[in-house]
Amino acid sequence: MKKVQLIIAFAALVLFAWAIAHVGLSTIVTQLKAMRVALPIVMALSALRLFLQSTTWSASLKGGNVAVNTRTLIGVRLASQSMGYLTVLGPVISEPMKIKLLGTSSEPTITATFLDTGVYWFSSALVAISGIVCLPLIATHGAAYHWVPGILALALAIFAITRRTPILPGVARALGQRAPSWLTRAEQFERSIRTYRLEQPALVSRMFWTGAACQLLIASEVLVVLWSLHLPIHFFAVMAIEGVTRSLKLAGGWVPARVGFDEGGAISAFAVAGLSPMNGLGLALTRRVRDLLWALMGIIWLVWSTRSLRPRHAITLQHSSNSSERGI
What we know:
Blueprint: H1 2-23, H2 25-34, H3 38-63, E1 66-68, H4 70-86, H5 91-102, H6 107-138, H7 147-162, H8 168-175, H9 181-199, H10 201-228, H11 235-251, H12 261-272, H13 277-308, E2 314-316, H14 317-325
Antiparallel strand pairs: 1-2
């Protein structure tokens, strides 16, 4: 465990240095000076979002009879997100890394973690689609029929997530013997997650609304940057900017640190919102500095935890209750 974490931490440091070199240290320093008012507010909003995300993850784990220290969850989330942000693999490496760093590979932990991630990304996708739907409202020659693709995508996403029966078994049956092994494994996880949702609807509902609050905090970052640049603030413009940047963020997740994608996405979003495209660079670089700071904190936590992180951080509630019954 120690050797693996040291290797990961070293790789993260190298990737972090690469990201700094490609963004440009002088650019980051200039942005810190230009956005000295907005950046602390954006960091505070991001810190609150991190706490809310860790709270819902903790609740999901407790629903599977697994209890983990909240501070450990925050550190694990930062460390895994830093690797996902700095590498070409994105969520492909960050999600399994969460489970690895918790110190347990039990199926309840895996199911609870994937459920937490799925609910959060569902709320994120809703915001992205809603932002795209808002584009015709701010476009000069927008027409009602431009809403149709976005509304259909939104309806399809809601249907896919909220339906009771799993989707992947049908895909696996259609492929027959050609179905890959990872699809069979994913099918099992989907069944577990949907069963979890049906067994604990109140918990999943609370997770969704907490995720929606997190999305509101992210959208508020756009509002803060507009305010700091003394630009007009309109609800549909904020949603459109967030929708465009969020969509391009998802598309550029395979690029280390999303170099180029964040800047291009923000510039394009400001342009379609009728604002100066170069002002979009302020939003992109503010978020870039925020992400790099969080990545650095995640790497520091990973190095620090190499000596202290143990599987004892993850214990089952059932074991705890049994121990208390025996008077231990």
